[in-house]
């Protein structure tokens, strides 16, 4: 354990998908050891969950402030080195800010904050401390997404002409059509979720992903959002047109009311010579499309892939990898940064990704409210 990074976790208790995802991902490369945290604001559930998953209870704290207070009393050799923030959106900013100010490295769920203003404050805070900050845009950890990014950078598809992302889910259907449920769900409460539900939750994934694989900056957006009901204050569906640097245009289509859809995230980049397409529900396949040529399918683990793709591949070709592996690759990159090792800038999303994500969310909502007009990021 002495050689492992000491990890604390905030939130993610009970049957939380995010909690399971982070805990398993952190263990995959044998570089982290969970030493404590606050899994739930209710003490009985907090301590009970720690016992359930086998975490020693001496560093399970009553609340976040108590955790900071007690951890800072410990010598550096015993103190938590990294803290993962897996709480509802409205807690991301105050927790991350205090963690940074107290000298902890931070892994934060997205959206990073509930406002662009908070994101800027957090960015300024990071500039004044010597710590690592990562935002878990999880899908950037997939080996074939990293291969896609490298192929675009290497000019395999030629000059980028169009970028396109679709992210469709249907999970909010049972909630949005029930007046009581939609009024009592935190994701549809602006005080807890921020100004956007769909764009803030999954649209920001699409935005970050398109900038990640194309390595272009999106400069302005035109959004048309759907709230379904007049008493619902947060979008659950939306389409956003994009204008990028170098004249490249694109589109993001997102929905949480796409009936029957599970987690249908598709990313496409089209160049003057070829196109690349990746589908999250079939993440081991990267499609290379060329006019007049047969469709080519690239798969992880083969020597024809880039070094960053192969570094994120744990198994031989033909053995499927998935969302846990993708998140684990982000944790792996953070571990390298925390340990002072050399790492590729594409190994984990940083504070800047989080800041740009918050700007995208606010500008998309602003564009819609102002009559679907072009709005600069």
TrEMBL record:
Pfam families: GFO_IDH_MocA, GFO_IDH_MocA_C3
Residue ranges of every copy of the GFO/IDH/MocA-like oxidoreductase domain listed in the record: 145-276
Domain Gfo/Idh/MocA-like oxidoreductase N-terminal stretches: 37-136
Record InterPro entries: Gfo/Idh/MocA-like_OxRdtase_N, Gfo/Idh/MocA_oxidoreduct, GFO_IDH_MocA-like_dom, NAD(P)-bd_dom_sf
Coiled coil spans: none
Protein name, entry field: Gfo/Idh/MocA family oxidoreductase
Source species: Gilvirhabdus luticola
């Amino acid at each position: 354990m002495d050689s492992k990074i000491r990890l604390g976790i905030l939130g993610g208790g009970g049957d939380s998908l995010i909690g399971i995802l982070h805990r398993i991902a952190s263990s995959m490369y044998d570089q982290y050891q969970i030493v404590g945290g606050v899994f739930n604001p209710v003490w009985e559930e907090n301590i009970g969950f720690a016992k359930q998953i086998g975490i020693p209870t001496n560093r399970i704290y009553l609340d976040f402030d108590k955790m900071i207070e007690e951890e800072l009393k410990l010598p550096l050799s015993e103190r938590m080195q990294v803290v993962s923030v897996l709480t509802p959106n409205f807690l991301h900013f105050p927790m991350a800010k205090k963690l940074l100010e107290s000298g902890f490295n931070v892994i934060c769920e997205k959206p990073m904050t509930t406002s662009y203003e908070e994101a800027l404050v957090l960015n300024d805070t990071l500039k004044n401390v010597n710590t690592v900050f990562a935002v878990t845009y999880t899908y950037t950890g997939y080996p074939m997404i990293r291969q896609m990014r490298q192929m675009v950078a290497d000019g395999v598809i030629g000059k980028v002409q169009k970028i396109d992302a679709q992210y469709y889910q249907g999970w909010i259907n049972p909630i949005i059509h029930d007046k009581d449920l939609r009024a009592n769900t935190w994701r549809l409460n602006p005080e807890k979720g921020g100004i956007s539900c769909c764009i803030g939750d999954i649209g920001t994934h699409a935005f970050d992903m398109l900038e990640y694989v194309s390595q272009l900056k999106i400069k302005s957006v035109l959004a048309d959002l759907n709230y379904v009901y007049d008493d619902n204050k947060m979008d659950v569906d939306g389409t956003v047109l994009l204008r990028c640097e170098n004249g490249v245009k694109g589109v993001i289509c997102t929905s949480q009311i796409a009936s029957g859809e599970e987690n249908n995230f598709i990313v496409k980049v089209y160049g003057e010579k070829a196109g690349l397409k990746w589908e999250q529900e079939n993440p081991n396949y990267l499609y290379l499309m060329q006019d007049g040529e047969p469709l080519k399918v690239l798969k992880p683990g083969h020597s024809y892939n880039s070094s960053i793709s192969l570094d994120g591949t744990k198994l031989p070709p033909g053995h499927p990898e998935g969302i846990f592996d993708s998140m684990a690759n982000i944790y792996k990159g953070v571990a390298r940064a925390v340990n002072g090792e050399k790492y590729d800038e594409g190994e984990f999303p940083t504070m800047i990704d989080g800041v740009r994500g918050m700007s995208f969310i606010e500008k998309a909502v602003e564009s819609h409210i102002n009559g679907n007009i072009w709005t600069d990021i």
